[in-house]
Amino acid sequence: MQPLASMATRRGLLLVLVVALCEVSALGRTPLWDGNIMMPTGEGHKGEEGTRWAILIAGSAGYWNYRHQADVCHAYQILKRGGLKDENIIVFMHDDIAYHPENPYPGTIINKPDGPDVYQGVPKDYTGSDVTVSNLYAAILGDKSAIEGGTGKVVDSGPNDHIFIYYSDHGGPGVLGMPNPPNLYADDFVGILKKKAAAGTFKELVIYLEACESGSIFEGLLPEGLNIYVTTASNAVESSWGTYCPGMYPSPPSEYGTCLGDLYSVAWMEDTEKENLKKETLEDQYLIVKSRTSNHNTYRSGSHVMQYGDLKIDVEELERYLGFDPANENVTKPGLSELSPVNSDIVTHVPQREADLVHLKHKFYNAKKGSLREANAASELAKTILHRRHLDDSVRLIGELLFAGEDALQKLGAVRPAGSVVVDDWACLKNMVRIFEASCGPLTQYGMKHMRAFANICNAGINSSRMSLASLEVCKISTSVDLGIWSPVTSGFSA
Ligand SMILES: *[C@@H]1O[C@H](CO)[C@@H](O)[C@H](O)[C@H]1NC(C)=O
Ligand SMILES: *[C@@H]1O[C@H](CO)[C@@H](O)[C@H](O)[C@H]1NC(C)=O
Question: What Pfam families does this protein map onto (predicted)?
Answer without folding.
Answer: Legum_prodom, Peptidase_C13
